[in-house]
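TEACHING EXERCISE
Course module: macromolecular assemblies
Task: Read the component lines below, then compare them to the predicted structure of the full complex.
Student: A.B.
Group: 4
Components provided:
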Amino acid sequence: MTEPLLTVEGLEAYYGDARALHGVSFSLEPGQTLALIGSNGAGKSTLLKSICGLVTQKRGRIVYRGADIAGQAANAIVTRGIALVPEGRRLFPSLTVEENLQLGGKVRRPGPWSLAAIYELFPVLRERRRQLAPLLSGGQQQMVAIGRALMSNPDLILLDELSLGLAPVVIRDIYDLLPRIVGNGLTAILVEQDVTRALNSASRFLCMQEGRVALAGEPAAHSREDITRAYFGT
Amino acid sequence: MEWMNAIVQGVLVGGLYALFAAGLSLIFGVMRLVNIAHGDLIVAAAYLAWVIINATGLPALASLVLVLPIAAAAGYLLQLAIFNRVLGKDILPPLLVSFGLSVILQNGLLVMFTVDSHKLHAGALETGSFELMPGIDIGYFPLLTFATAIAAILGLQVMFYHTALGRAFRATSDDAEIALLMGLDTRKIYATAMAICMAVVALAGVFLAIRSNFDPFMGPGRLIFGFEAVIIGGLGNLWGTLVGGVALGVAQGLGAEIDPGWQVLAGHLAFLAMLALRPRGLFPRMAG
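Instructor-supplied answer key:
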């Protein structure tokens, strides 16, 4: 059996006194894509933010490549090879496209991604490289956000709501490129409101409900009815 | 010609105000910290220079070789030890801490150096001048101050917009949380910004101390001039800060030409007029 890349054990996360995650556990092997599904407020984004260190109030273990990273700062976790594409893109508005990408490459790990490789994946970004990030369309901004995360050559990429606020044709284009992004053995956790698209893109899924894991496994191993029941908590 | 002379002298003194303002602008730009102690830090740098000159016999301007790195190191430690602990979404705690620091600095300087004023001396440089045209003399020292302000702001501008450090400053200013995900240690980024700010503060302190007497309580006045220059020039625009300093200096010069008692008042009136007519200043930073 392959050694897990990531193992989350009994993870609890808090915003002040409010508990957002209630003992979440799962593991992920190298090269797998995990679809993280669930209704609004289920704790999907909190789980991603906990893994990458942005949520600091937490209990439990997050074991990555054999080391518990639960207590580490976000800027240390990225050096271990975990990158986040945040919900809403959150590009740096005072930086150009290229500067956003360069900053993503501040932590440079060995791997296939470079500025040239990102421009090859998203040619439009090369044309727009000197523009300030907010001047791009939503789809182009999402490309920058993905490119910025890839620039560090992560082993695990956390993709939070890639399709949020984008036109259907743009969403399709980005998902068409997803196999090229995760095709190099990159492990991914994909948070997506479009459940069908998420399940089609993933080798495993984890359905969350009110901060807990409601159902997990391989998409083909569960009926859509089971998944729907877990999604809505019925 | 007297009016022309007042304008020229105002422009030159504007360089000093720009030096007061540049560090303030940098710190606000990077970490949204309104540092009430900024003026007192300028005065503290002047005292540091005075101590170093008395101990080593260095000429006033040469003391910058020591004052500048010491101030920068102090700024780095000040940020790590104090300001980083209170920086967050609420701007009030750092504001209050900087106010407290201001009080501590003033009283600390009073205890150490008494209320007597001091001055740094730069010999012929301080008093020498050349005639630009009949009725307008340019002092070497005011000209050097102005040139230093331009050089400092040019340096900050290049650093901010054309270096990896500047990119890190801008990113941290935009979104500190996401900056962490880029591997930036935002605490050290803030400390580095404060160190650079304090290096400019050191320049401002030494030039202030050569230009005029200083005492432990003149910090708040320098803070006001710095604030006014930043607001007149436009928040977040370094070249605007220079223009703001010059506008303030010219307003004061023209006020003094009308009546010597109106010098400072005229600067404040120019500031108020700017707030009323262009509240975002002459050259506000482009939004998003």
